[in-house]
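User: Predict the complex.
Assistant: Input components as received:
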Amino acid sequence: MIGKSLLAYHRGVDDAAEHERDTAGEADVFKALADPTRRKILDELAERDGQTLFEICSRLAMKHRLGSSRQAISQHLEVLTGAGLVTSRREGRYKFHHIDTRPLERLTDRWRNRETKET
Amino acid sequence: MRINITSVLVHDQSEALRFYTEVLGFVKKHDVPIGETGGRWLTVVSPENPTGCELLLEPDGHPAAKPWKDALVNDGIPFTQFEVDDVRAEFERLRGLGVRFTQEPADMGTVSVAVFDDTCGNLIQIIQMN
């Protein structure tokens, strides 16, 4: 979660230590996005935010014919949560998963900013 | 061999009877006191198929029942499923009666489904064949 807050609020890359942590956070995001099942999970959460584990599993199995086990999906969600792309919310006895796109907003700034400077 | 009955584990049989008849719309079929424990052999059926499969509203007093039910609810898993003609219409009707849905109607291709809380400790899936 440290990486997430840095990605969300950190703008400059002046401080070397801060840069190190920022890179680590970015690596988590890229790693999370590298897996096609995890991208499908984000697709489905973008379509309807706030889903139980069961709904996510149902959508992957029924809509995408992905036969991943519930345990595997649960682990994918942990990776996405570690990268700050998914948050979970407990409501009474239920648990819902939400997409958080804030880490993505900072992801490509360093390349896009350079383009801006050159033009 | 035929399937004549299936069960849901409920923490209060009287409350369950009220929800399954007054809210869901099933009708009581059997209500027989059992022993001296206060338990009843309590079943309901669909009015669309009164001689069909019965649903037993079974007490969840066994110590394994609650952790099992809680674990399923935590992951949003419905153990029991009922078929409906129109999942969206049934969702609107039940929501109007105050039923809590953990999953609003979603088109899954060959089926459309939604999941609600039966107030007796269970999640129930309703399913429409597309």
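Chain B touches chain A at residues 70, 73-78, 102-104, 106, 108-111, 113, 115, 123 (CB under 8 Å).
Let me know if you want any component modeled separately.
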